[in-house]
Amino acid sequence: MRIGPRSRPFRASVRAIQRQDPPMGWITSAPDAQTPGLYFKVLPPAPALRRWVRYYWILKDDGRSPQIDEYLAPDGFEELIFSYARGFRRHEVCGPDTKEQVLDRSYAVGAKSSGVTCARLGRLAMIGVKLWPQALHALLRMPLHVLAGKPLGITDLDAPILPELEHRLFDAGGEAAIARILDEALLRTLPVDPDAMLDYAIGELFASRGTLGIDDITSRYGVHYRTLEKAFRERIGIRPKALAKALRFKHAFGTLSGRAEAGRLGALECGYYDQSHFCKEFRFFTGRSPTRFFRERLSVDVSTFCLDLDLCASNASLPPARIDVRSGVRHARPGAATQFLQDPRALRP
Hints:
This protein is α+β, with helices and mostly antiparallel strands.
């Protein structure tokens, strides 16, 4: 399955990149042309956007990197992704359900509550906007249950701002221009404040890393569970329990995935009943047991890098991470990645 078409003039420009003709601007610029690898850079949004936008990111390579599949753990965020090269094959895992898509066009995806394995189809040149849950609803003004975890081409959405952004970002002269273009467009489009009830529930779930009970949230806020669930379905696209489950696994994966077998105490600290509970969830989100997953040596560099960002003490400008896909080693870590939060709610203003 492939997603929506682009306009013909724009498609011709993208084909030039896919043929590896020399384009201008951000697509070919890199800090170290001698070292092949994936270049992953995070850019902070304008302060006024931080209630909606977690960060912007750039991912690209020069076509010399060897092929290694990348596993992305569910993170609960929504995303806009603008793709200008060959793209990748996306294999989604959520319990017994699996889906596969070829994504070689720009797309939006709702709150991610499933694991995904990505295989590059060639050269990459992508710009992403990582959004807090309910931001896509505010941007697209459509029920999000049709987009929950599902990539949908931007040309299939009734949002003229997205094709406009795709064209403007393609012509951006560099990373500062990319951030400026995104800031201007989103500040013009997004409302000032999110829905208060959902903002509270999302903040509590992210702060507790998915371990806080939904009944506790509804009790504290003074609403019925069905009221919260209906709002989640409309504005986020998934149930509150699905978001909690994804967040719990995301942090457990980052904490316990350094070895094939997670210890019982470590699983308990991450909100699981015991080690078998964690292993069951691990299989639900990866389609494999922990032992098999690490034996197959899928790369988890991007997942680990993004989890580090979730634990950073600020959303300040960060250095790039050049990922050496031959060894799985990043040559630059997030500048504040070792400054862990005492209160994860500080991630949101």
